[in-house]
Amino acid sequence: MDKHDWEGPLTEAYERATHYLEGLPERPVGPRATAAELRHELGGPLPQGPTDPKEVVADIAKGVEEGLLPSGSGRFFGFVFGGATPAALAADWLTTAWDQNAGLYAAAPAAAVVEEVAADWLKSLLNLPKQTSVGFVTGAQMANFTALAAARHEVLKKAGWDVEKQGLIGAPTIRVLAGAERHDTIDRALRFLGLGTDCIVPIDVDDQGRMRPDALAEELKQQVPTIVCAQVGNVNTGAIDPIEEICHLTKEVAKDAWVHVDGAFGLWAAVSPELRPLLKGIERADSWATDAHKTLNVPYDSGLVFCAHPEPHRAAMSVRATYLIHDENGQRDPLDFNPEFSRRARGFPVYAAIRALGRSGITEIVERCHAMARRFADTLATNGVAVLNDVVLNQVLVRFGDDDELTRRVVKAVQDDGTCWMSGTTWHGQAAMRISVSNWSTDESDIDRSAAAVLRCLAVAQRLR
């Protein structure tokens, strides 16, 4: 094997990356180039010959510079994006360099073992049952998909139907009981699974978006294959469904039903002694979905699925073929617990993040994000801005002047200003600004600077009305 120049392009990438990361604290938080400008920088005819790799790295870094959305900034509050801690980012670089195909133990022994270790740590952190199986997936979308596939398998098996062999044609009807303010990844997962969204029975919620147990109890009375989807962290308000009541009702009224918890960001509240009571009874569910690229601040993409019943999980996901090598000692093959065949070794950065932070460091991130969200809400409320939600986790929902047009103008003005970035939403039929504090590096100065920018943009928007 010939030697190749790795140092040139990798050194260029390191220097460009370090420059970008070190500049985040003062970098304007938002893209500055239009799509047309980016195409001009990056486009052109198909290259007809080789280009020096170092030059390629330099050119792409220069070409995308003004089109990057600095979601790793401590003043980025859009969607529910986390950043990346130094250890997790460095491990992710090594993951790319090692280039392991982490589907089989035989193909990537170290990756498989790291997943096992990280999985045990995660179960301890999140207070999940010891026998729980774990899959490392792309994000909460595929975590929800995987968990609901296991749920589909189990509720149909209890009804005398093998969905993996017989498919869905002629299968008993499944009802999915989910809160009226569930995340769209639940609907999308059910479409992927062939169940369709018509199987969803929306359950009434309270004024914060929490599922109402009394409304659930009524729907559980129908004795058909049933999956209950609870939510830990409403995407707008951060509200948490009453998990203990939901699990108790489900097990009491519909004993063959399956309870799944969509906890994309809210499941991490289990790490905090302060916030853990919000998740009382979480261990009684049958499956859980969350993201590592949110609260744990691991680089994209990194999601996690947990199943209290490993056999349905494995039955829904596993595959066997004559050419595949399954370890004779029964070592865990990651592809048995996720929908991918060839896959990135996502366990390395998750392992690195947990190892570097420890329980106390992860607790500090969870509690600081909550405290910073409260600080943001209190500052805006003190200055006359309507805060629409109870700030129970890291989400703040605000509205300006009880006016849709003004609210949308303020959101756009803040995004254009560049001090911070947050997204708009529609909640209960009204325009709102959604502020999500999910970055490990966000501190008081970031909040104060950002709140001042929001109030400044509001004052300008009001003068222009």
UniProtKB/TrEMBL annotation:
Keywords carried by this UniProt record: Decarboxylase, Lyase, Pyridoxal phosphate
Residues modified as N6-(pyridoxal phosphate)lysine: 294
GO molecular function: aromatic-L-amino-acid decarboxylase activity; pyridoxal phosphate binding
Domain of life, source organism: Bacteria
Keyword Transport appears in the UniProt entry: no
Alphabetical list of InterPro entries matching this protein: Aromatic_deC, PyrdxlP-dep_de-COase, PyrdxlP-dep_Trfase, PyrdxlP-dep_Trfase_major, PyrdxlP-dep_Trfase_small
Lyase in keyword set: yes
GO BP terms, alphabetized: carboxylic acid metabolic process
Any Pfam family matching the protein: Pyridoxal_deC
Cofactors that this protein relies on: pyridoxal 5'-phosphate
Family: Belongs to the group II decarboxylase family.
PANTHER family for this protein: GROUP II PYRIDOXAL-5-PHOSPHATE DECARBOXYLASE, MIP05841P
Entry protein name: Glutamate/tyrosine decarboxylase-like PLP-dependent enzyme
Organism the protein comes from: Kribbella antiqua
